[in-house]
Design a protein that fits this description.
Arc Repressor Mutant, subunit A; alpha/beta; single chain; 7 strands; two-stranded antiparallel ribbon; 6 helices; about 200 residues; five-stranded parallel beta sheet
Amino acid sequence: MSQLILIDFENIIPTDFKHIPEQARVLIFVGKQQGSIPFDLVCALQPLGTRVEWIKVRQSGENAADFILAYELGKYLTNNPTRHVTILTKDKGFDALAQHVTRGSRRCCRIESLTDLIAEPTPKTELPAKVAPPSGAEDILKVLLTYPKARPTKRKPLENFIGNRLKVAPEAVPPVIAELIQRQKLQIDEGTEKVTYHF
């Protein structure tokens, strides 16, 4: 599968899985002290079938689950060609791991909500990358207006969103964001990279 999602269940317990792409595999890491799983959560995950794997952390100690998540990620990438890796956690310590895993055509990022997930586009025919047309910012505005509660909340997911929607090369995305900022449609905090929308 082209997309892998790792959930730090000890850190975040998600409730809405409708944003998980159809081609994604999900690994959920459950802490040693977590003895039960909410019934509604299990029901929400059932449609994903064998694409979901539960990994119980049986070791105790500080950051035990974090180290095991990093190990399982490395083991998975060794045996599976994966283009996009997403780690769902509020632990910013995973940012360094995400940067290390990102190389070549493979991307890795940390998110704090499943609404920030960006689906990999379904591969069709290989077309040369093109630059964004002048109407790129306007097109993105129209799309974002239809998803008021599911907009990317960080700069990187927003860049992925724009690139996938406009089907453009990565270098064509910053001008679109710059135009949206210039038009005061959004702003991005330089420190946290949090995106705030004004429409």
